[in-house]
Design a protein that fits this description.
mainly alpha; three-stranded antiparallel beta sheet; about 75% helix; extended; WH_DNA-bd_sf; RPN7_PSMD6_C
Length: about 160
């Protein structure tokens, strides 16, 4: 019963996306829906060019202008994480090409986001590769167990030193 319902919902979503695709790209349409669809389809380069136009409009608004950098960074973070979700590793050249920016820009942008803990990947600058490391519950439990084990070993060593005195 549930599988049939999920299958029906998936089919409906695909039909709706197809309708949106036809209507929005042929007739222009709503900017927000159009760009969400571009991101959904993996058209990151066209999204970024359209996104820069939106940011120019936001800069003119006196209430939103102070928050433009935060908004841009958060949107780019979501887009980068969506792109990286599909790969175990990807070259920085391929990512820069997909987004229509330079490798240096991608390197700088991703290094800031990784340092802030917003993206879960590592940059191999020598090979020019991004390696994703997806955090999951099992991995987090493993890391916590290792940390607690190290703490316990340190305590036991300290106690054995006290007893030996």
């Amino acid at each position: 019963m549930e599988e049939g319902l999920l299958d029906e919902m998936r089919k409906r979503m695909e039909e709706e996306i197809k309708k949106l695709d036809e209507n929005l790209f042929e007739e222009g349409g709503d900017w927000e829906k159009k760009n969400r669809l571009q991101v959904y389809q993996g058209l990151y380069k066209s999204f970024f060019s359209e996104f820069s136009g939106l940011t120019e409009q936001i800069k003119l608004h006196h209430h939103l202008h102070p928050h433009i950098r935060f908004y841009m960074r958060e949107v780019r973070t979501v887009i980068y994480s969506q792109f990286l979700e599909s790969y175990k590793s990807v070259t920085m050249e391929a990512m820069a090409t997909a987004f229509g920016v330079t490798v240096d820009f991608i390197d700088l942008e991703l290094s800031r986001l990784i340092a802030a803990g917003k993206l879960h990947c590592k940059i191999d600058k020598v090979a020019g590769v991004l390696e994703t490391n997806r955090p999951d519950a099992k991995n987090a439990l493993y890391q916590a167990t290792i940390k607690q084990g190290d703490f316990l070993l340190d305590r036991i060593q300290n106690l054995s030193r006290v007893i030996d005195l």
